[in-house]
Write a structure and sequence with these properties.
108 residues; mainly alpha; 2 domains; two-stranded antiparallel ribbon; 4% strand
Length: 108
């Protein structure tokens, strides 16, 4: 049996010890394969895309967060009106674009 104490996980940026994971999470984002299970049905698209910015503290104000969300949404071909909707209103391909926008909003 190999325990985590016996091994070290490395990536291009170096060791991924528990203390370094916060910095690593800013560099790498995950996109789940199933877009139907990946998005919270209780959050608007705006909130879904903004969540990583808020959790990592990458923006200082709501206006700054909204600006970054609008910018990345446009790059992922999501209209501004989409940001007020909930995930159930979108097709699988649109949900995948929402997931991609959520991952790219942090500039990984």
């Amino acid at each position: 049996k190999i325990t985590f104490d016996d091994a070290e996980v490395c990536y291009d940026v170096g060791s991924l010890l528990k203390k370094d994971l916060k910095n690593y999470r800013k560099l790498a984002q995950l996109i789940f394969q199933d877009p139907y299970a990946a998005l919270s049905p209780r959050m608007t698209v705006r909130d879904i895309i903004a969540e990583p910015l808020e959790v990592m503290g990458l923006t200082q104000t709501r206006e700054e967060t909204d600006e970054r969300v609008r910018d990345i949404a446009a790059k992922c071909r999501l209209n501004l009106e989409h940001l007020r909707r909930f995930p159930h209103a979108f097709s699988g391909g649109q949900r995948q674009r929402i997931s991609i926008a959520r991952s790219l909003v942090c500039n990984p």
